[in-house]
Amino acid sequence: MHIKIGFDIQLAIASPMALVYVLHVHPSRRDDLLAPEVVLIEPQLQADEYLDAFGNQCGRVNAPVGVGEVRFHSESIIRDPGLPDEVDWAARQHDPTELPPATLQFLLPSRYCEVDSELLQFAWNQFGQAPAGWARVQAICDYVHHHIHFNYNAARATRTAVEGWREGTGVCRDYTHLAVTLCRCMNIPARYCTGYLGDIGIPPVPYPMDFSAWFEVFLGGRWYTFDARHNTPRIGRVVMARGRDAGDVPLTMAFGPNTLKKFEVTTYEVDTHGNAISTV
Asked: Which domains does the chain have, with CATH numbers?
């Protein structure tokens, strides 16, 4: 299948400043693009593109005096196999002594995932009897899916996993932070993901299109996708960035006072001519 992806983000800025963006598809999906992905910036500013410590494609622009507003926008079509997220109930959990060193950072506490908190004992009390491996991660997803009530109006950029657990409300990043934290508490490496996830293969939902957050866990010698908010395998997931939590993968970060003026996300299935089609 083919999926049209894109965004239109506009920031009002009050003074000259640097802006970092993480808006490209992840390098692992770059070869699936029908044409090279270009992030357009208005006004036309010099962009310094680089790979961060997690292998994400990032960029930086330095807005000079008097710019006032900066706009990032892009539109692409990407090939996708059209298969739901893989499920493998036989995927085993590794003891920390045998984990690849590169996965160990995804067991540690991070800005929004407080493994060293009251969640540690709670996790062992709640999931310690669940079979190790896939079944244990699924039990965590089931718990988070039912514990947090989805509410766009309750979104808060500073909410941590512990706060989301206590408040019982939030958006996709809050489901993800809590699930990631509980997995790490159970010695399962878990990393935060952000990207596109449209209403492909499901009835349209009554929310504005947005970027989505989910997570990956290391089981059976590889990384697998899990999604505590939807809690079911989905079609058409396009990863943009991975990190320890949302703090590692900000879509845009302005190093100074700013106001979000526009935020639109595009992700839907198209035919070979680029026309939208329905899969439901």
From this structure: 2-82+250-270 (2.60.40.2250), 96-248 (3.10.620.30)
